[in-house]
Design a protein that fits this description.
Number of domains: 4
CATH superfamily of the largest domain: P-loop containing nucleotide triphosphate hydrolases
Strand content: 5-15%
CATH architecture of the largest domain: 3-Layer(aba) Sandwich
CATH class of the largest domain: Alpha Beta
Shape: globular
Distance between the termini: 23 Å
Number of helices: 19
CATH topology of the largest domain: Rossmann fold
Length: 457
């Protein structure tokens, strides 16, 4: 049986076999092995085991660096040991400050066996494929957007079943992300996911974009075109900014939702939509119905399951994990050696109002990564507007009463969530990191509704 505490990542089959054989002989344990490409989607924020990174050629040096960067920058708890088989050609010394150990193969084979043999039994890998849908979604949300954890069960329910979903929220709050998340965990995940930004399409071209058109059906239609409702096949179609559709276009859409039938512009041939629909709006559609700007019958058809995404300024606990995840992505894109974000920079990010929500945060992190030339993303790398948001305000009236209490609770909940993530949901280690007892941590987790979402220690 493979040791659940240890995973070997390597693309060289000879190196894999040599390390596995050695560890089996010295420790009596079989070690699971995977490739660099294969392990990326399997690791989660609670993969609390020993990760052995085998490196035997120049290409794997870059892969090992990127994986170390991903885990360290996001503060995921895996214990990392680099098994360096490159000899004098190695350029991995820069990783020494960010990993548990770097060992040379085969010279340090005995030290490797000792590390595996003495590894804490509480450390274990729990791969994404080993748990049910609700727990998988909870882990993914906790890694990036912990404020959305209460939605995990409903997101899983929406993902499993072919119901129309309505997502509401300001521009840039993550509506496309949530729709894609439902698609990725649905039975349709092997099919396409397509997004139609309704507000960006001219009103006279909407139906052609939706349903396609026949050749010669209007000026400029010099060929037959397949619309998105047909091109997506059995996948998922997101209609973003659906509130921008005119009332007559809403009527056409209502027919498709009710019967699955549509005709391309200029054609009498009836087609059948096989896709699952998710719709998104930047405004409250119920209010739009009351104002006569949105059809009531369409609204009730769309609102089988609905989700509201609050603006980022109301999701302070999401900013650090989102920033770290974005920093990983842009550090890889721009080949930057970044392994942490300065606490002062994180405070500035959390103090900013984010009128552009996630899209603005993404642009800010991209700017900061480009400006950064060291291992830590600093305050000075952020745009001036974000830096200024963290400056102290003089003579400001203190916040009194319930609002102060609520803000303190929100801040404490965010700190506890981050400690749990950083320590692989191990309550003992999280309590030690927070400087409180395990009993106190348990009481606070119960107070803030974190017991259900957290893995047992």
């Amino acid at each position: 049986m493979a040791d659940p505490r240890v995973v070997l990542v390597a693309d060289d089959p000879d190196l894999v076999q040599a390390i596995q054989t050695h560890l089996r002989g010295e420790t009596g344990q079989s070690v699971f092995a995977d490739s660099y490409a294969g392990i990326a989607d399997q690791l989660t924020c609670d993969s609390d085991g020993l990760l052995l990174l085998g490196v035997s050629n120049a290409a794997q040096q870059a892969q090992a660096r990127q994986l170390v960067q991903q885990l360290v920058l996001q503060r995921w708890p895996s214990l990392i040991v680099v098994v360096d088989a490159l000899g004098p050609a190695s350029r991995l010394a820069a990783l020494d400050h960010h990993v548990f150990r770097r060992l040379f193969w085969p010279d340090d084979a005995g030290k490797l066996a000792t590390i595996v043999r003495e590894l804490d039994r509480s450390r274990q890998f729990r791969f994404a494929d080993d748990v049910d849908l609700e727990e998988t979604l909870s882990r993914r949300l906790l890694s990036l957007t912990p404020s959305l954890l209460p939605l995990a069960d409903r997101i899983a329910l929406a993902a499993r079943h072919d119901v129309t979903v309505l997502i509401n929220g300001e521009t840039g709050t993550g509506k496309t992300y949530l729709a894609k998340l439902m698609h990725d965990y649905s039975p349709r995940r092997q099919h396409r996911f397509m997004n139609i930004p309704c507000g960006a399409i001219s009103a006279n071209l909407i139906e052609s974009e939706f349903f396609g058109h026949a050749k010669g059906s209007f000026t400029g239609a010099d060929r037959t075109k397949i619309g998105k409702f047909e091109a997506v096949g059995e996948g998922t179609l997101l209609l973003d900014e659906i509130d921008t559709l005119a009332l007559e276009q809403q009527a056409t859409l209502l027919r498709v939702i009710e019967t699955g039938e549509f005709e391309p512009v200029g054609s009498t041939e009836t087609h059948h939509c096989k896709a699952r629909l998710v719709v998104a709006s930047n405004i409250d559609l119920e209010k739009a119905v009351a104002l006569g700007k949105f059809r009531a019958d369409l609204y009730f058809r769309l609102n089988v399951m609905s989700f509201h995404l609050p603006p980022l300024r109301e999701r302070i606990s999401d900013i650090e994990p989102l920033a770290r995840g974005m920093a990983v992505r842009f550090a890889h894109k721009f080949n930057k050696e970044i392994y942490d974000i300065q606490g002062e920079a994180l405070s500035a990010l959390e103090a900013f109002a984010w009128p552009g929500n996630l899209r603005q945060l993404e642009n800010v992190i991209q700017h900061a990564v480009l400006m950064c030339n060291g291992p830590e993303l600093m305050m000075r790398h952020l745009p001036a507007a974000v830096q200024e948001a963290n400056l102290p305000v003089l003579d400001e009236e203190p916040i009194l009463g319930d609002s102060l209490h609520q803000q303190r609770d929100q801040a404490e909940r965010g700190v506890i969530q981050r400690a749990l993530v950083s320590n692989g949901f191990n309550r003992t280690r999280a309590a030690d990191a927070l400087g409180i007892s395990r009993v106190t941590l348990y009481k606070k987790m119960r107070k803030y509704g974190l017991l259900k979402e957290s893995a047992k220690a």
